[in-house]
Amino acid sequence: MTMNNETPAAFDEEALEEAYDRALRLEKAGDFEAASLAYQEVLKIDPSDHGGAAVRLASMGKGEVPPKAPDAYVATLFDQHADMFDTILVDQLGYDVPLQLREVLLGLDEDCNFTRMLDLGCGTGLSADALDDMADHKTGVDLSENMIEIAYEKGDYDELFVSEVVLFLQKTTADNWDLIVATDVLPYMGALEAFFAGLKARINKGGMIAFSSETQSQDVFQGRDFMVGAYQRFAHAESYLRKLMEVNGFECLACENITVRHEQGHPVPGQLIVARAL
């Protein structure tokens, strides 16, 4: 099933490719002023922002931090990498957050089992693989159709939906869940108020939410709740996440500092959080 409230706008793909390549060359050369102008031209050609110009501008400090990564950008990014996603993320980037989540959940309850699990931003199904024996029924949601196709072929989910995750939480008419997982989702979202409100609305009382985030030191955040980091992904302050959990009636059960992945040989710091709906 597909949930989508946007109709893709037509644009000149050749002009977009030329403009984007020029902007990227300027950025890599360190000419951020010229790159900023070039990315603004990219956005004029493609307002839907399939190339993620807005987050690149924010990463360079040349534009306002957007409330989220553009849907067109996220869908394009993951559609392009779907076939090699597991190899790139796990083997090349050292990503093992779903397995780390499994250990955290077992540490909280060695017999933990959930009737209904919702996997937001499910991708190819790495969390479903890691938590396979912990949930009787699993629903997966992802913005990338290609990712959903691969997850379907694996057969780990009982239901799959193509949708932006907040839209899904707002629109679904399914029964609520007692475990909602969102691993490697927050790095593509900035403001999280609507996301946590959606979690609150769709979790059963006593159910658990589990999510990972990327983070920075307080000196880097400089009082901000979130920011776009050097690799065009969002980082969130722990204080912001704790505030949203409290406001939405979640008790934090675990908050572990982890390495989310490795980027260009460097560990990317993050957090893995599990909370219970009161």
Automatic annotation (TrEMBL):
Q: Give residue ranges of the TPR repeats.
A: 16-49
- Which GO terms of the molecular function aspect are on file? methyltransferase activity
Q: Which UniProt keywords apply?
A: Methyltransferase, TPR repeat, Transferase
- UniProt cross-references to Gene3D superfamilies, sorted A to Z: Vaccinia Virus protein VP39
- InterPro entries assigned: SAM-dependent_MTases_sf, TPR_rpt
What Gene Ontology terms for biological process does this UniProt record contain? methylation
Q: Which CDD domains match?
A: AdoMet_MTases
- This chain's protein is named Class I SAM-dependent methyltransferase
Q: Please give the organism.
A: Paenochrobactrum glaciei
Q: What is the lineage of its organism?
A: Bacteria, Pseudomonadati, Pseudomonadota, Alphaproteobacteria, Hyphomicrobiales
